[in-house]
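From the methods appendix. Each design record in this collection lists the tokenized structure first, followed by the designed amino acid sequence. Records were kept in a plain field format so they could be parsed without special tools. The example shown here is representative of the layout used throughout.

RECORD:
FOLD TOKENS (303 positions):
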């Protein structure tokens, strides 16, 4: 009995490895946007692989941040009180910062490892290699959405209502984190191809982000301990600025007097600093893409 044809068989891993290196492809972030269908497939496959073999699947992206927030709430709101007696709704203050720090670190670390982890695709398919760090940034954004949902729910219960200034602040904070994270992801990803220690350096750097932003402590504490000059130097950290922006968007609106909270716990010229640092991060992204373009031709043979 003859069997119906099922189409051409998919190549095995050994057959893929035997293929010659792919010819050079058009490069650049603009080319990545032009091939957004392929980019979307890469993002979906990356997300699916993360939850492969689990029963709850993507629901874990909600359960894990929800559990983390409840732990913070119990510890700081119930057991300790108001964040050691200094910050109202400290759990919101902490979790808001954690949302944007998570987005940045996952973009940075994921982008750094993206070329090495996709070596089989890079060496065989003629695609712009910037696509892989960009895909990891989009995956990070996808995982950040559930954290935002978990953040918004208690904010609403505590009386928060979205306001244009606050939403603009949060959007600016995410834009800053996205541009900076992608720029560093591009630079470190190509560096990681030539020297694997670069990936370890990236992981070490992101460990410091959690402690170098006003998340587990307030910006006011920085001013008290280090004075105006020290606080000014502290604000040169772009992620500290990003955290303050998202706290302006969500946390301040949950306090009993949002205007007074913003005046006391947020620095002056918050938006001006945010816009300046976002512009610098975009410039760094342009420079990172140029460095990436100069080195990417050697990536397939080094992988």
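DESIGN:
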């Amino acid at each position: 009995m003859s069997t119906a044809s099922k189409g051409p068989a998919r190549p095995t891993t050994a057959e893929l490895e035997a293929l010659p290196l792919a010819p050079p492809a058009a490069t650049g972030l603009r080319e990545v946007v032009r091939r957004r269908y392929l980019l979307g497939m890469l993002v979906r496959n990356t997300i699916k692989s993360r939850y492969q073999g689990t029963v709850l699947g993507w629901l874990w992206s909600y359960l894990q941040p929800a559990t983390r927030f409840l732990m913070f709430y119990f510890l700081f709101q119930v057991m300790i009180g108001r964040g050691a007696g200094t910050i109202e709704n400290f759990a919101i203050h902490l979790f808001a910062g954690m949302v944007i720090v998570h987005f940045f670190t996952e973009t940075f670390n994921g982008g750094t490892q993206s070329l090495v982890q996709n070596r089989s695709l890079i060496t065989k398919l003629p695609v712009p290699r910037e696509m892989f760090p960009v895909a990891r940034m989009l995956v990070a954004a996808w995982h950040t959405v559930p954290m935002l949902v978990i953040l918004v729910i208690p904010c609403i219960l505590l009386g928060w209502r979205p306001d244009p200034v606050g939403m603009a602040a949060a959007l600016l904070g995410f834009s800053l984190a996205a541009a900076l994270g992608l720029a560093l992801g591009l630079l470190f990803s190509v560096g990681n191809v030539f020297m694997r220690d670069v990936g370890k350096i990236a992981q070490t750097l992101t460990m410091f982000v959690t402690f170098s932003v006003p998340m587990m402590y307030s910006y006011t504490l920085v001013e008290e301990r280090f004075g105006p000059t020290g606080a000014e130097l502290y604000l040169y950290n772009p992620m500290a600025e990003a955290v303050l922006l998202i706290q302006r968007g969500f946390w301040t609106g949950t306090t009993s007097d949002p205007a007074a909270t913003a005046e006391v716990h947020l620095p002056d010229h918050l938006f001006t600093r945010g816009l300046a640092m976002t512009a610098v991060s975009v410039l760094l992204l342009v420079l990172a893409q140029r460095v990436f373009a100069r080195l990417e031709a050697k990536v397939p043979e080094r992988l």
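APPENDIX NOTE: Residues 57-302 form one domain.
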